[in-house]
Write a structure and sequence with these properties.
By secondary structure, the chain is of the alpha+beta class. The chain has four helices and eight strands; from the N terminus they run E-E-H-H-E-E-E-H-E-H-E-E.
Length: about 200
């Protein structure tokens, strides 16, 4: 078991996903040059904390740190995916999930020219499936209250706005029910009718 109490994390191949239009792959240092071109646009950070990466080398260092897939204290799993538009074999953004024993906190960012095509929702739905497969039942996102595009993604994921605030962002969440117990087929041959 991992320090977080979750089942062992699947390998990188198990975290590779395909959707109708996208490929999602664990981020590695090799993704930094292409992702730098996506993430360097200052307009992307209007509603996000942080700023564009300074250069490819800085982004490479960040991705090398993320490749460990756990927080420095080992209490949180860090799952980070590069999102590729398969039709063009082009990276268009990334999606993150910070996994704790009782929940996952998701975040997504797409380059401006790939927004409003449903790509973030498509990628996030695939990641939610992975998180549910790890046994998580609460999925959350911290969203700037003025970031209409991210709010739409959260709504499409079935998340609802809460009254919680973290660093000036509203917490959106969805709690999934546990999987239903398998149906037990009853053997009706044991019951007799006196008709």
């Amino acid at each position: 078991m991992l320090p977080t109490g979750l089942s062992p994390l699947p390998g990188t191949e198990a975290l590779t996903m395909r959707t109708k239009r996208l490929g999602l792959f664990s981020i590695t240092r090799e993704h930094a040059p292409a992702m730098f071109e996506v993430l360097k646009d200052p307009a992307l950070y209007e509603y996000l904390s942080g700023s564009p990466p300074v250069d490819v080398a800085a982004l490479t260092r960040q991705y090398e740190f993320w490749e460990g897939r756990t927080s420095p204290d080992g209490s949180e799993l860090w799952l980070n995916w590069a999102i590729r538009l398969d039709a063009r074999q082009q990276l268009i953004g990334h999606l993150q999930a910070g996994v704790l024993p009782d929940r996952a906190d998701m975040a997504w960012i797409l380059g401006a020219r790939w927004q409003q095509h449903g790509y973030a929702t498509e990628a996030a739905n695939a990641v939610v499936d992975v998180l549910l497969g790890l046994g998580l039942r609460e999925i959350r996102a911290s969203i700037n209250p003025n970031h209409a595009a991210s709010i739409r993604v959260a709504e499409r994921l079935g998340m609802r706005r809460t009254n919680e605030v973290f660093d000036g962002e509203l917490i959106w969440k969805r709690v999934y029910s546990l999987p239903a117990a398998p149906n037990v087929k009853r053997d009706n041959s044991l019951s007799h009718s006196n008709n």
